[in-house]
Amino acid sequence: MKTNPGRFFEDYRIGDVIRHAVPRTVKMGERAMYHALYPARHALYSSDAFAQSCGLPFSPLDDLIAFHVVFGKTVPDVSLNAVANLGYAEGRWLQPVWPGDTLRSESTVIGLKENSNGKSGNVYVRTIGLNQHDEPVLEYVRWVMVRKNDPAAPAPAPIVPELKTSVPASDLVIPKGLDFTNYDFTLAGEPHRWGDYAIGERIDHVDGVTIEEAEHMIATRLWQNTAKVHFDATFREDGKRLIYGGHVISMARALSFNGLANAQMIVALNGGAHANPCFAGDTIKAWSEVLDRADTPAPGVGALRLRLVAVKQGAKPFALKGEDGKYLPETLLDLDYWALIPK
Amino acid sequence: MKTNPGRFFEDYRIGDVIRHAVPRTVKMGERAMYHALYPARHALYSSDAFAQSCGLPFSPLDDLIAFHVVFGKTVPDVSLNAVANLGYAEGRWLQPVWPGDTLRSESTVIGLKENSNGKSGNVYVRTIGLNQHDEPVLEYVRWVMVRKNDPAAPAPAPIVPELKTSVPASDLVIPKGLDFTNYDFTLAGEPHRWGDYAIGERIDHVDGVTIEEAEHMIATRLWQNTAKVHFDATFREDGKRLIYGGHVISMARALSFNGLANAQMIVALNGGAHANPCFAGDTIKAWSEVLDRADTPAPGVGALRLRLVAVKQGAKPFALKGEDGKYLPETLLDLDYWALIPK
Amino acid sequence: MKTNPGRFFEDYRIGDVIRHAVPRTVKMGERAMYHALYPARHALYSSDAFAQSCGLPFSPLDDLIAFHVVFGKTVPDVSLNAVANLGYAEGRWLQPVWPGDTLRSESTVIGLKENSNGKSGNVYVRTIGLNQHDEPVLEYVRWVMVRKNDPAAPAPAPIVPELKTSVPASDLVIPKGLDFTNYDFTLAGEPHRWGDYAIGERIDHVDGVTIEEAEHMIATRLWQNTAKVHFDATFREDGKRLIYGGHVISMARALSFNGLANAQMIVALNGGAHANPCFAGDTIKAWSEVLDRADTPAPGVGALRLRLVAVKQGAKPFALKGEDGKYLPETLLDLDYWALIPK
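^ inputs. structure came back:
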């Protein structure tokens, strides 16, 4: 058999290092497409001149481009037979990705726990994205529930890694040279700076975008994520194509420009849940909550820890969870990240 | 409140200069997308080699890319609360936009006139697009009807600028170095030159394109135009997304290749009306009328003043206005521009 | 009449050389779009670093980008009035297309045969694609059935060129410098090498993609192929837009990654049939058959002759033709090509 059947739960071993195919050179074409698929307007990723005014040599590729490219490569090895994408933790952007960089991914199996039904188990991997110099650009932990191929395969000794609930502010990596002391708030689009955001403050980002099949498939392919369920309308019994969770992440993040235009760079992913599936025809809106604030050693640069929530049509303002503590049916995404913002 | 509520009629003052966010670096990715979204084939914008044979260092970005990028930036400050986009005048392309240029926009309020109902008023702005050297690349006047937030706000002294009905040929700016004396009509696609077009001549461009939601949203986001009405199917009561008028402009202009393949560069926008709204599913066709001809000092370069009309399915040949002088329901766009064409 | 009516059967003469409009510079933007429209993952076209490890200066543009660009230019002169696209033969990729190259096309009429009904005839053209140095990058023969405009026009002396059923392996042109001796099978995505494929072996590529209107139109425009039937929903009586056959070719080729990840470069097109029309909403799957194997003089480089079949929903495994020897209604494409693969 020449085609890839994907890995099943019993195929993983603690300590396995998986070098993922296929390396990918990313340039301005990918950036143009990203900005056409999402209403992305953060100035640092839009303008070379603006990035230079912030101490960078030119505009890097969007932080989430890096994430999607690195993530997409892991799909054939990690989630082809996944039942569910359970969580993210300890994500950190380690250096910008520049146009022309070639990215590849490696994952290490750091946790395994078979479910009590004996039909599946949870696999924890720590993934790093590397550039053409073999320098890490991104790392994160992800865990997924994966089917067993042979229900009789013996359960491995359960190992569940201890994961931080949030990346400590002191562990955030600030891009070399970043300096917000000459930041132009007018060109960036909003006057609000680090000190203007209070812990607990919530922001309704107001705008909405209705999702199309062509758009989520174009986006998902751009990251070489080829999971059938996103592309093949004959795959699910209901004839629907499930939208890649990363599409919702990027849409919500772009929508958050309206109210968080100066939260320029994502530098850590503390956690995240894809609360409900998203399908074409859904209209996505977003809101944010300020979870924490931290100073950084870089000139003029502060950090905000933000909850980013994506909801769909019918959601009430700031909808998240019900009284039972479970996500409401209109909640699509609950993401927890750190972003850099001028002080 | 952190999100942008947009400006209302009473928020504008004559002489106000608005520096619009967000600067944008445009490169070959944007060009590739433009040529994928529209059947754009004018040789000067398609081939570096062809552009070099016309005296340019290489192929500039399409004239309408410059327009859309500059226009898109003005939306959050000018038309977020607009009821209608009323007109354009005195538009001039002042120099080509090259791949790698970073564009930003500034608008000056040059006219204000409250409507007699006291609920809205017309705002006139002169917008300039600037590159990273702060050199102007484009200027135009646009006026829009904007809602008042507070109906009790006092009406300003009415000022309506005097605007030229057409840019005089002597004011057209010819790109530096442009020389059509070695123009290759075969490679450009048609044999018709300046002298072959007569004032009053009309050309049916024959081809049609049916519009998709994904395409107009991708295009509109590419120019960072984020007006809700284009993206959010829950925004209008009829559940339709209104298509950005610039999408119709670019589609009609690209369709006009068939019959005007040598009308290479748009150098002035004399006026324009978005006669009726356009929605996904509409099939756009176009026709042109030669309004005027002028010589230019550049070698081999003539200018045509053209009316470009976009119509939708059901339109009769050369449909424009009815006997009552009003636009027919099938008329989408009535644009008046100057283009450069080899003599 | 200023618009292009296209050529009719009686307008072709044996030996006519047609220089097609419009030359096109292709760069990384076109590559990014190609990889967003198709699940293209062959490593040589995805990563500069991988291409360098295979002896190339950097990653060339996908072989099918070259094909589509060269083909698209011929449409206004060859197939605007075509009733059917009948076949391909003797296609060879002669050198890689690099980002920044400008492509144009020329076709020579090599065969003419009027049909017995006197209403149409077959036109055979040999097309070459040329870069900005006037060096050939691609050549192929294509024949189409074209309508006559004047049924009374006299039939030309019938000339049907003798065409090879397959490009001999000795005629394959290997890109200069290509060397697969240090090929990294892990990064490429699969362990299967030339010696692992047996003549007669068939591979079901498993994955499927449902086709959207926006996607096939974006793709087709990207190659400046502007045939009405692909874009105008009012053109056909059934209101359907016929999908450009090349869209199906690229989709099937990209799907064949799963099982043929190492069949990196297409170097010859032996033949091909668009067996049935494809419409938006169809779900495309693909399978391949190994038709032949050949060695090449390049280090570590072998060649496989492959049949690539695209089918739509409802097709049985390895569906192709019925007992009557005719293509089954679910068969969309039957393509015969040579690809280079590491030994």
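Chain B has two domains: 1-26+61-163, 174-343. The longest strand of chain B covers residues 102-114.
thumbs up if we can close this ticket
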